Amino acid sequence: MSAPDVREKRRWWRPELGLALLVLGLGVVVVLGTLDVSAAASRLGLGPRFFPTLVGGAMILIGLFYVADVLRGGRGDPEESEDIDPDAPADWRSVGLVSGVFLGFTALLNLVGWIAGAALLFFGLSVALGAEHKVRAALLGAALGVGTYLLFVKGLGVSLPAGGDLSGIVPSAD
Amino acid sequence: MESFRLLIDGFGGALTPVNLMYALIGVTLGTLVGVLPGIGPAMTVALLLPVTFTVPPTSAFIMFAGIYYGGMYGGSTTSILLNTPGESSSMITALEGNKMARRGRAAQALATAAIGSFVAGTIATGLLVVAAPAVVAFAISFGPEDYFALALLAFTAVSSVLSRSVVRGLASLGLGLTIGLIGIDQQTGQARLTFGVPQLLDGIDVVIVAVGLFAVGEALYVASRLRHTPPEVVPVGRAWLGRDDWRRSWRPWLRGTALGFPFGALPGGGAEIPTFLSYAAEKRLARGVAREEYGKGAIEGVAGPEAANNASAAGTLVPLLTLGLPTSATAAIMLAAFQQYGLQPGPQLFDHNPALVWSMIASLFIGNTMLLVLNLPLAPLWARVLRVPRPYLYAGIVLFAALGVYALNGTVVDLVVLYLLGLLGYAMRRFGLPVAPAVIGMILGPMAEIQLRRALAIGAGDPAVLVGSPTAVVLLALAAAALLTPVVRTVLGRRKLLRTSRED
């Protein structure tokens, strides 16, 4: 895939190291992020900084062990599941598509409303995951959008966006 | 017997038409999500939290308990008919169960799993009735230092049992504890780790965390390596047992129950260990036909582990209800549900809300009976559910995840947070970090902090107060042991791995 010298140089780097460093980094963030928290500790026994410092310290320790474990060649077993092909190479295109569809749904939801938004989300995700009948996916999406709207908004009183919310562009009427 | 009388009252509360309906909804939903891959009881209860605001707590918990038990039944159907299990607790059932199914004995495998689950669930719920008041009587004298030690024990036990790598289990726990820290400190009103973002002042809702880690994380993980061949589901008719199968099943059912209940009640015990122990015990005890069949589909290897699985679910409710201590992801979400209603599980719950507690326990007996009826004749229906095309399944799961999270506060900010937590869930799956410790850490962490601060306030800041009671000392010692045992095991395992890799 890549030139041998590049592989040689990057052999210590594995994607799992990223997660291990995230754990370590979060520990640092927790400790530093709560430095500015102060309260009358004397009256209430322990202040609000004590426990975060404990958690942050533990995270740093765990993060160090985790990083060391990954560097020494340890690896976690990918979770098993019915629909997972453990031998398949990671399909980044699908992950990107799923992410794009979901974030697009997030951006459009208030504008197009729940029914259209949910229909598009379902259609987009099922196509991204390899649905073969696109028409069926679209019909199912529309049915789910309308169905969930009726069930949750009319039936259970949950509020979902009706659409046409141009707040930021047009001030709302009421 | 006092608890017997309370239980009868509980039946009175649970047998109303409305509550029977909630129980039926719960067990049906539970079986459905147990059968379906990619979605489990923990996430289902989390998704239902926002829509149960208007439901009275007794009905809500009857439904949640139904989902919990139903998920156990449904998981066995998946492992028998599809080989790869839906829930980790059904992993062992797949070993013999799927081989039975492939030999044309799917109906018997499903029947022994369902009837065994019923027998185990009923006996174990009976044990819960007996054990809960006893634990309450003991725990009534617990001080904050004991509760803090108990939380620590749950943290270390869950982290070390659920993962083959202790450091990964602890990393997951730490991620959950960190998420739990975000927001306003309950005692002093100080904002912590909010970085000036006003939406973070109330903390990140448990629904978003659970749904993000479970549903969105699973969808991304599946997207990254979807199996493109359609699932191979073994066809099945109505589930039934022949006379010979009854004879071979009843003893494993009882032995499985005896293993499952106590393990479920222990912090970090869960369902994985007792199902495995039951499988091993039945294998050792197998004689005659069973001995020959073991490894090729012996009914004992399904009956025992499935009974252990269900009994452990009932066992999990003992620490949850009597101590407020969750030992599985679903129990942790149920604890969050109690808090949503302003209730705190523990000895006081039995005092202040006996009607709620005993109606819920009574509903477990009712739900178990419903599940037996749902699972024996309707097995072909659940088998058909397994054939849902995967793109539609995961698209639907994400759609409901987005719905549940949006319904919380009606803001798209939560959807962005949901996606970010989904990425974290993806990474955790990809690199073998168990998700349950994160969920338990997030929900139990703030309670551990309160107990710790209360204990230290009583002791005027002297840390010796944390080991001031014998109970706390024992619990802390157990917590340390839970951490150290797998380390020893890892070292031994690594040696073994070295040997096998040399043989390659």
End-to-end C-alpha gap of chain A: 60 Å
Unreliable stretches of chain A = 1-9, 168-174
For the record, the count of structural domains of chain A works out to 2
Helix segment tally of chain A: 5
| Main interface by residue count | A-B, 87 and 81 residues
Amino- and carboxy-terminal Cα gap of chain B: 63 Å
Taking all Cα atoms into account, the compactness measure Rg of chain A is 24 Å
Spans of at least 5 consecutive residues with low confidence of chain B: none
What count of domains describes the coordinates of chain B? 1
* SS-based class of chain A: mainly alpha
- Number of DSSP strand runs of chain B: 2
Shape by Cα distribution of chain A: flat
Largest sheet of chain A: none
H/E topology pattern of chain B: HHHHHHHEEHHHHHHHHHHHHH
Shape of chain B: globular
Say how many strands of chain A there are: 0
Characterize the main sheet of chain B. 2 strands, antiparallel
- Mean pLDDT of chain B equals 89
Helix content of chain A: 55-70%
* Secondary structure: helix percent of chain B: over 70%
Pfam families (chain A): TctB
Transmembrane segments (chain A): 17-38, 50-68, 101-125, 137-157
Domain DUF1468 (chain A): 18-161
Keywords (chain A): Membrane, Transmembrane, Transmembrane helix
Describe this structure in words.
- The complex is a heterodimer of chains A (174) and B (504).
- With 174 residues, chain A is an all-alpha fold.
- Chain A folds into two domains: 4-71; 92-155, no CATH class.
- Helices cover 61% and strands 0% of the residues of chain A.
- Chain A is built from five helices and no strands.
- Chain A has helices at 4-9, 15-33, 50-71, 92-128, 134-155.
- In chain A, helix 2 (15-33) runs antiparallel to helix 3 (50-71) and helix 4 packs across helix 5 (134-155).
- Mean pLDDT of chain A is 82; it is low at 1-9 and 168-174.
- Chain B has 504 residues and is mainly alpha-helical.
- Chain B has one domain (2-503).
- Chain B is built from 20 helices and two strands.
- Chain B has a two-stranded antiparallel sheet.
- The longest helix of chain B is centred in the first third of the chain and has 49 residues, at 91-139.
- Chain B: Keywords: Membrane, Transmembrane, Transmembrane helix.
- Chain B: InterPro entries: DUF112_TM.
